[in-house]
């Protein structure tokens, strides 16, 4: 499958890279199909709309930056995503001009079911997490502080 992207132009993706988001993503509810594109170094991924070339989100595994990150996935979301075995959790990264000021959104993780190719961004209610946790500490290394501190 070929999709158009603003970053890479026309890009060939495999069917197993495409996830269906039945309710879209908050603020982009009409966009229900996204490709998960891994970058070469494997640490970051893009969540690219298969229809809107300008719509893409940079994702990362939150546990790489906040090993103590935890939340309980509500049963309704578990059921909606048909999760019974595998689940991937990713969070949206906001890159800043000064990379050391980049942030990760721990309040609204993207939940992916790789078996069923279903996805959903959920908002964690009653959570101490925020939308802008530092991606790196002041020394320029990965953040190792506990989220919410």
Architecture overview:
It comes from Paenibacillus dokdonensis. InterPro entries: Flagellar_assembly_factor_FliW, Flagellar_assmbl_FliW_dom_sf. Keywords: Bacterial flagellum biogenesis, Cell projection, Chaperone, Cilium, Cytoplasm, Flagellum, Translation regulation. Pfam families: FliW. Interacts with translational regulator CsrA and flagellin(s). With 149 residues, the chain is mainly beta. It has one domain (2-134): BH3618-like (Roll). Helix content is 7%, strand content 32%. The protein is built from two helices and eleven strands. The protein has helices spanning 62-65, 75-80; strands spanning 2-5, 9-12, 18-20, 33-38, 44-49, 56-60, 88-94, 103-104, 110-113, 118-121, 133-134. Strands 3, 4, 5, 6, 7, 8, 9, 10 and 11 form a nine-stranded antiparallel sheet that branches. The protein has a two-stranded antiparallel ribbon with strand order 1-2. The chain is globular. Residues 144-149 have low confidence and may be disordered.
Keywords:
11 strands, 9-stranded antiparallel β-sheet, mainly beta, 149 residues, two-stranded antiparallel ribbon, BH3618-like
Q: Low-confidence parts lasting 5 or more residues at pLDDT below 50?
A: 144-149
Individual helix count: 2
Amino- and carboxy-terminal Cα gap:
44 Å
The portion of residues forming beta strands comes to: 25-35%
Overall pLDDT level: 88
Find the structural class using helix and strand composition. mainly beta
CATH class: Mainly Beta
User: What is the overall silhouette?
Assistant: globular
Order of helices and strands: EEEEEEHHEEEEE
Helix fraction bin: under 10%
- Under the CATH scheme, the architecture is Roll
Radius of gyration: 15 Å
- CATH overall fold name: BH3618-like
Counted up, domains total 1
Number of E strands: 11
């Amino acid at each position: 499958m070929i999709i158009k992207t603003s970053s890479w132009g026309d890009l060939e993706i495999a069917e197993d890279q495409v996830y269906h988001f039945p309710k879209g993503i908050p603020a982009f509810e009409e966009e229900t199909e996204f490709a998960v594109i891994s970058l070469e170094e494997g640490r970051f991924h893009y969540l690219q709309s298969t229809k809107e070339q300008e719509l893409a989100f940079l994702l990362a595994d939150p546990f790489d930056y906040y090993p103590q990150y935890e939340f309980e996935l509500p049963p309704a979301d578990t059921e909606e995503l048909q999760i019974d075995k595998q689940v991937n959790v990713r969070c949206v990264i906001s890159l800043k001009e000064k990379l050391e000021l980049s942030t990760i959104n721990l309040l609204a993780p993207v939940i992916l079911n790789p078996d069923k190719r279903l996805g959903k961004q959920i908002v964690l209610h009653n959570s101490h997490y925020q939308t802008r946790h530092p991606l790196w500490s002041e020394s320029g290394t990965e953040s190792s502080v506990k989220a919410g501190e």
